Amino acid sequence: MSGIDVGNGVVGAILGVVFATLFQQWTQDVWFRIRRRSAGVVRSITFRERQALAWSTFSLGPLHTSALVVEGDGDRAIAAESIHVQVLDGEIALPEEMAAWRDEIEAEESRAEAAGDRAPVWNGPRYAVEGLEISRSALDERSEVHLRLRPTDYYTFLAAQQLDRRLPDGSTPRSRYLDPEDPLAAPAFLQCSFAVNIAVVTSDHLLVVSRRSNRVRMAPGVWNSSVNEGLSRHIDSAGRNAPDLHAVARRGMREELSLEPHEYTLSLLAFVLDVDKRGWSAHFYARLGDMTGEQLRARLSRGVADRWEHQTIEYVPFRSADVARYLLRPDRIRLWAPLAPALFHLALVHVHGRSSVERAEAQAVRRL
C-alpha cells in the first residue's frame, strides 16, 4: 500500500468520526426539541447553556427576576417620535382547548354577579402584542421601536395567564408554545398584556414605591412602581387611533398619583418583557418639578382615582446605594413585582450614570 493510500485512509477515518459525531449531536438536539414541545414540562436550561444565551433576565446579587430588558439601557431616553404603534385588524383567537378556559372564567363571573357574593371582574377591552421590532435610525443610531397590537379582552388575558395548566394531551401552554431558548418568540394570544411602569421621583429626590392592594386580581400584595397602567382599547384609542404610550403614562400619573402633565417631566427608558407571565412594559422615569414627597403625601390624602389599587406607599432616597439596599431588604427581596427592580435600576442609571450606579449596587451586594 502506498503512502498516499495510507494518508487517504487516515483522513477518511477522521472525517468519518467527525461526521458521525456531528450527526449524533444533531439528532440529539432534534430529539430534545421534540421532547420539549411534546412533554408536559419545560426542559430546564443548564448553567452552561444559560451562560451561552445572549438574553438573560435582570438580577441584582441574590435578587433574580423574570424581567428581560429588550431595548434601552437607561442612559439615553427613547424619543416619542421613535415609537411606531400599529393596531392590526382581527381579535386574538385562543386555541380550542384554551378557549374553554375563557368560557369557564366568563361563566364564573356571570355566576358571581347573579349571586351577589362579590363584585364581578369587568371584561375590559385591551391589547395583545403581535410583535415588537427594534431598529436604528440611519444618522444617529437612535432607537426605532415598532409595536404591533391586536384587540383582545380581559377574560382572554386571564385564560392565557394559566401557562402551566395541563392541556388534554398532558402538555401546558408554556411547554407547547414557548421556547426558553428564544424568549422573544411567542404567539400573540399568550401576550395579552402591555402596560406602562413609571419610576416617580419627587423634587426632593425621593423615589415613590407602592405595595399593591390585596384586593387586585393580578399580583396582589407585591411591591411595585407607584404607577402601573395597562393599555385600554376603550380609553387609549380614541376613534381608530393607535394608543400613544406617553399619553398612557400621563393617564397613569393622573389616575394613580393625581399628578398633571405640567407638574413633571417624562422620559421613556426601555421596553421590558416579563418572560414568565409574558407581560410587556414600557418603562418610564418621571421627575416632579416642584412637588416634594411631603406635598405629594398631602395631595394623595385628598383623594386619588385609583387609590384602591395600592395599600402602602413609601418614599426612598433616590440615591444608588439607598435604592439598592432597599431592593435587597430581606422583607422585600421576594415580594417585588417582576418588572420593578429593573425599572428602578434604569431610572438610577438615567440620572446618576451607569458606572456610579453599578459601583453602588456591587457594594450593596457585598455587604449582604
Q: Mean pLDDT score, rounded?
A: 85
Kindly, what is the distance between the CA atoms of the first and last residues, rounded to a whole number of angstroms?
Answer: 71 Å
* Helix content, binned percent: 25-40%
The radius of gyration is 24 Å
Largest sheet: 8 strands, mixed
Secondary structure category: alpha+beta
Point out poorly predicted stretches. Answer: 17-52
Report the β-strand fraction as a percent range: 15-25%
Number of helices: 11
| SSE arrangement, N to C | HHEEEEHEEHHEEEEHHEEHEHHH
Number of strands: 13
- Outline, from the CA principal axes? globular
Tell me about this structure.
This protein is an alpha+beta fold and 368 residues long. Helix content is 36%, strand content 24%. The chain is built from 11 helices and 13 strands. It has helices at 3-38, 47-52, 96-115, 154-160, 173-177, 233-236, 245-257, 293-301, 320-327, 340-352, 354-366; strands at 59-60, 63-64, 67-71, 83-87, 125-136, 143-153, 194-201, 206-212, 223-225, 227-230, 264-274, 279-288, 310-317. The strands form 3 sheets. Strands 3, 7, 8, 9, 10, 11, 12 and 13 form an 8-stranded mixed β-sheet that branches. A 3-stranded mixed β-sheet has the order 4-6-5. The chain has a two-stranded antiparallel ribbon with strand order 1-2. Strand 7 (194-201) and strand 8 (206-212) form a beta hairpin.
